[in-house]
Amino acid sequence: QLQLVESGGGLVQPGGSLRLSCTFSRLTSGNYAIGWFRQAPGKEREGVSCISEWGADTKSADSVKDRLLISKDIAKNTVYLQIDNLKPEDTAVYYCAGRRSSYWYCTSLDPTEYGYWGQGTQVTVSS
Q: Could you read off the pLDDT of 49-58 as tens digits, one per residue?
């Protein structure tokens, strides 16, 4: 089991950048992939990016992969999501989540495959 807490959301002007943080705590041992998801009002939750337990394998959605960087500080149990050139359509609640996974790979951005979720952090892109 994991507990996850997001931080770093806020109001950003179009073209700006934001770095979100996800700090997680393990309640049980095991390997977990950590993913970032977002949900805009009236829309389904969508996968943005994920990173493997060992931190070297990542997967990102085609719609945003050219503007983001996901990284992991293993010592701090924290996953970061940096998004550049923010657009109004990036406005959403951003969640991090964890799922049991292999040590080496993160293979899924399907939110239904993630069982542990943070409370979310609001990102608003507006001038």
A: 999 999 899 9
